[in-house]
Amino acid sequence: MVDVFSTLENPRLEFAMEVRLKFPRTQMIPNTPNGGGRSAVYVESGVFEGPRLRGVVVPHSGGDYAYFRPDDVAVFDARYMLEEEDGSLILMNNRGFLWGRRLGIMDRLRDWAFKGGEPVPHEDYYLRGNPTFETSAGKHDWLTKHVFVGVGERKPDGNVLRYYALT
Q: Cα separations (Å) of 152 from 86, 131, 137, 159, 160?
């Protein structure tokens, strides 16, 4: 038997863009029948920029409808429209997780996000996403041909997320 080693390389991440979102309006459905709660944050505005694209988040084009599981993990499901400075529209659908690294961190994050509480340091929570994109064939369709991962940070009025293409 001949040993055959794979020639696959280790995956690499290439910076694609940073997205800054503002979503000051929030709503919450507590105590759903399946044991958690649903929140809605509506995107008011935002900007994005990377080596190959830049533009604005279309105001009021969507939001994040996170489900807060009984174990206090937020499973987010965000969808909104990006408008590249050349006029191209890009639909972004981002799913992922937000959870506190210690007991009580999610309560502090909710206080910060929904009640104007004290900021929570980024190292105290995990905010990661896996976006997909839809756009017209052409200049920006590379977004539809890659797997992306995102690392996020909560801000007083929204989020900042940095996205990387898995190459």
A: 26, 12, 28, 7, 6
